[in-house]
Specification:
This protein is an alpha/beta fold. It is built from 17 helices and nine strands. A nine-stranded mixed beta sheet has the order 4-3-5-2-6-1-7-8-9, with helices on both faces. A hairpin with a 6-residue loop joins strand 3 and strand 4. It starts with 7 loop residues before the first helix and ends in a 12-residue tail after the last helix.
């Protein structure tokens, strides 16, 4: 199974560099470093953009629909004329109409026809599809090399990280296509696929072996690989009930194409990650050290002793909320033991989230002594303090966070227990 490499650690380091250098006196060298750090952070935070291009009628929109897992883009010779359409992740379905020179507007749901009437420069369709958290699909307008329509295609390719050029299997990889694709930057060609479409049609299917042999010989440095696909059959295979027809999905080329797309996207993400790590190690982190900004390693903290501090509270006698609290705090330390390179910001954020959850619980439940009505306020105050600590550097904020958690543990030990001899602690 192809998996995308994680980027959270590197993005946090890049953001820390940008925050630490934001207020420094500007000079050419620093501005160059900040621009590079910002570019790395944006690339690693966004999905990998996969572009679908090809001449008119090559089946690129059908292919994009198949990989999106939804019949979003219109297909066929008489379909709705559209500009660039981007299919990306969104919590709720929405359609964004965009222009290069003015503010966009948003329609709820999938509204391509309505969007097209606005004559936009591009349209973005948001779908709640997990795969789209890693990749975004760019359906470029169909092109022809004998007129000027190929020029917008070339311009729009600059927005994609990888590309799939769709060629109609009935007359695959014509001279007009080679003419256009030769104008594409070599870096993009090396991370692109030639998809031979309409292989479900008998004339194409019967000659497919011969066609693929020719294309693999001719592709040279033009494409990373050549992949045949019978899109309608692939869609039908995945729509079978009660479960998809995986054998048909594989034989029609759906499995092979999906794997190739994920592979080129993963390779691109890995290349971006390697580039960011190189700059972090050679430029960004050394720069922070040169201006005496600490870059602490949370693994250097004495986690066992910190956990002992938290556990050194009143015994949890008939105190369910304290038991839950200590279990939640213990989970943080379990993460510390299992992940030796946990970032300070991640640790502080975990602390803040736990405190915030218990603050809400204390407001809604009657699990503490009625005389301890000040306890929820202490948790709310601690939430704000932990948030502020995330903007500080060094080991001191981490130790402060430990003290805050220990104090809240003491408070819950008193407020949630029915022990008469217990005495309240001072506020956080």
């Amino acid at each position: 199974m192809i998996e995308f490499p994680g980027t959270d650690k590197e993005v946090r380091q890049l953001e820390r560099f940008l925050t630490a250098t934001e207020s420094l006196p500007s000079d050419v060298a620093l501005e160059d470093l900040r621009a590079r750090a910002l570019a790395h952070a944006e690339r690693l935070s966004n999905a990998v953009n996969i572009g679908f291009a090809g001449e008119f009628g090559a089946g690129k929109s059908s292919l994009a629909n198949m990989l999106a897992g939804a019949d979003i883009l219109p297909t066929g010779p008489q379909h709705l004329k559209l500009p660039l359409v981007i299919v990306a992740y969104s919590e709720t379905p929405e359609t964004t109409v965009g222009w290069w020179d003015r503010e966009p507007k948003v329609y709820s749901g999938i509204a391509l026809e309505k969007a097209a009437k606005d004559e936009p420069d591009f349209i973005s369709v948001g779908l709640n599809t997990p795969a789209l958290q890693e990749i975004s699909l760019y359906d470029l307008p169909g092109s022809g090399a004998l007129d000027d329509t190929y020029k917008p295609t070339l311009d729009l390719l600059k927005f994609v990280d990888c590309a799939i050029w769709c060629t109609n299997g009935t007359n695959a990889w014509r001279e007009t296509e080679r003419h256009l694709w030769a104008k594409v930057p070599e870096e993009l060609r090396a991370n692109s696929i030639l998809a031979v479409t309409h292989t479900d049609l008998p004339p194409v299917r019967d000659a497919l072996d011969r066609v693929l042999a020719r294309l693999n010989k001719e592709k040279r440095n033009m494409f990373r690989s050549v992949v045949p696909i019978g899109t309608p059959v692939a869609v039908r295979a995945m729509a079978q009930e009660p479960e998809p027809d995986f054998a048909l999905w594989e034989t029609c080329g759906g499995q092979g194409l999906a794997e190739q797309v994920l592979d080129i996207a993963s390779n691109r993400r890995q290349a971006d990650l390697s580039s960011a790590r190189e700059d972090l190690e050679q430029h960004f982190l050394p720069y922070l050290k040169s201006i005496d900004v600490q870059v602490p390693d949370i693994a250097a903290l004495d986690a066992p002793s910190m956990q002992a501090t938290l556990e050194n509270v009143l015994p949890p006698i008939d105190n369910p909320i304290l038991e839950d609290w200590l279990a939640a705090i213990a989970s943080i330390y379990e993460d510390l033991r299992e992940t030796s390179n946990m970032e300070p910001a991640a640790f502080l954020q975990s602390c803040q989230e736990i405190v915030e959850d218990f603050a809400e619980r204390l407001e809604n439940d009657d699990e503490i002594d009625p005389t301890a009505d000040w306890i929820p306020g202490e948790f709310e105050k601690a939430t704000d303090l932990l948030l502020l600590l995330q903007f500080e550097s060094g080991v001191a904020p981490l130790k402060d966070a430990i003290s805050i958690l220990a104090q809240l543990s003491d408070n819950l030990a008193w407020a949630g227990s029915r022990v008469e001899s217990a005495q309240p602690k001072t506020g956080t």
